[in-house]
Amino acid sequence: MSEIQSAPPAAAIAEADVPWLSDDEQRAWRAYLRGSRALEVILDAELQAVGVSLAEYELLSMLSEAPCLTMRMSKLADQTVQSRSRVTHTATRLQRRGWVERHPAPDDGRGIQLHLTDDGLAAVRFAARVHATGVQEHLIRQMDPALFRSLGDAMDKVRTHLLGEQPANYNP
Amino acid sequence: MSEIQSAPPAAAIAEADVPWLSDDEQRAWRAYLRGSRALEVILDAELQAVGVSLAEYELLSMLSEAPCLTMRMSKLADQTVQSRSRVTHTATRLQRRGWVERHPAPDDGRGIQLHLTDDGLAAVRFAARVHATGVQEHLIRQMDPALFRSLGDAMDKVRTHLLGEQPANYNP
DNA sequence: CAACAATGGTTGATATTTCAATTATTCCCC
DNA sequence: GGGGAATAATTGAAATATCAACCATTGTTG
After folding, report:
1. For residue A96, what are the CA distances in angstroms to A90, A99, A119?
2. For B4-117, where are the alpha helices, taking DSSP H only?
3. Strand D bases contacted by the protein (CB, 7 Å)
4. What single string gives the DSSP state of each residue in A80-123?
5. Considering chain B, what is the average pLDDT of its residues?
6. Are the beta carbons of B3 and A148 separated by less than 8 Å?
7. Shortest Cα distance from B48 to chain A (angstroms)?
């Protein structure tokens, strides 16, 4: 984010051989940064109000959709774009609440399968309603469907670029 | 995020009186979640590599554009969508590095003006190049200009909804 | 002008995240 | 089959973020 635009220091202009952002790009990027931050803040707060953080919810939600309510730690980390370490810690906390269990992976001695318990399923079902409502209200309702589709397309390109080809709802 | 789609538990379907997400919405929302997370991760990592976190960079960058390189703590918090407490802590760390100074606000006895030092300005100028390059590479280059504009528009609507009317580059 | 609410900012305890090892297992390949 | 590289997950310490309580000042109201 260049400080050059609103207070151009003579020295800095000379070295403009790197792709600065144009005014329009700058504006769009700022809107993105602030909007996405605010969105995450409110969705997290709404979930916290019912006792789950957004990060926790994402894990639980992935699990709830997985076959047998079970998924490997590393896949969970990949799909939620969280570090392995973070998933480990979060899983430990969820386990303390009795929402998940750890089981050794049958096929790979190094692996752990995280399994959603009945209590966990109940919790995530409840949270899912809160979350879906929030997404509708704060994101989808704020624009017409075409624009929302564009948003999805745009972010899908970013996702693909950074994370590779798997589609948004890939499971195996 | 409803678990209903890929593993519909009979019980949950009955209580469908809340706005679940449609398949398309779900896909777009997932793309957004993962894409935005991945984007933040990489932009943060690129900045960390030159010694600044994204959160720190945002503060420094705002300061660098402000008149007299100076801004009130609370405005900084508002504009970066961070809590006041967080801004306080971050400012303290930046101060330890000699990048910002605190001065009492002339007009309001409660207020503090954060001022960017010369070292801070140098640091943010350097970081800005890294950041702008990352935004170009990972976001802008990944889509055609029209789509990027749509992205900006979409997030601007979200921002307005959640944060109010101020435009993305409002200063006073 | 006295009370009292609201604002601006800080503080410190607590919770979470990151980071750099560490362990165990599997994969590869000679 | 043995040795080393890669992968899966965990650990604990350090960095950072959140939360609630707090102090000082300002604004408001009667």
Report:
1. 10, 8, 12
2. 10-14, 23-48, 54-65, 73-80, 84-96
3. 7-12, 16-21, 24-27
4. HT--HHHHHHHHHHHHHTTSEEEEE-SS-TT-EEEEE-HHHHHH
5. 88
6. no
7. 15
Contact B1 A171 (CB under 8 A): no
Q: Is A25–B153 a contact, with Cβ atoms under 8 angstroms apart?
A: no
Cα B56 from Cα A111, distance rounded (Å): 37
Query: Looking at domain B22-151, which of 3.40.50.150, 1.10.10.60, 1.10.10.10, 3.40.50.620 is its CATH number?
Result: 1.10.10.10
CA distance A156 to B26: 12
In angstroms, the CA A61 to CA B155 distance is 25
Task: Give the residue carrying structure tokens 């570090």.
Answer: A83
- How many alpha carbons fall within 13 Å on the CB side of residue B104? 5
Q: How far apart are CA B118 and CA B69, in angstroms?
A: 10
What are the Cα distances from residue A50, in Å, to A58, A64, A69, A115?
Answer: 14, 18, 22, 22
Give the amino acid at A108. Answer: D
Architecture of domain A21-150: Orthogonal Bundle (1.10)
Let me know if A139 is exposed, middle or buried by CB neighbors in 10 A (0-12, 13-18, 19+): buried
Average pLDDT of the residues in A47-71:
96
Q: How many CA atoms lie within 13 A of A40 on its CB side?
A: 16
Check residue A171 and give its pLDDT: 65
- Report the 10 Å Cβ neighbour count for A120: 23
Residues B106-144: tens digit of each pLDDT: 999 999 999 999 999 999 999 999 999 999 999 999 999
**Bridge partners of A113?**
A72, A103
CB proximity list for B155: less than 8 A, separation 6 or greater: A28, A31, A32, A34, A35, A36, A151
The type of residue at A69 is L
Could you state, in order of their start, the residue ranges of all structural domains in chain A? Answer: 21-150
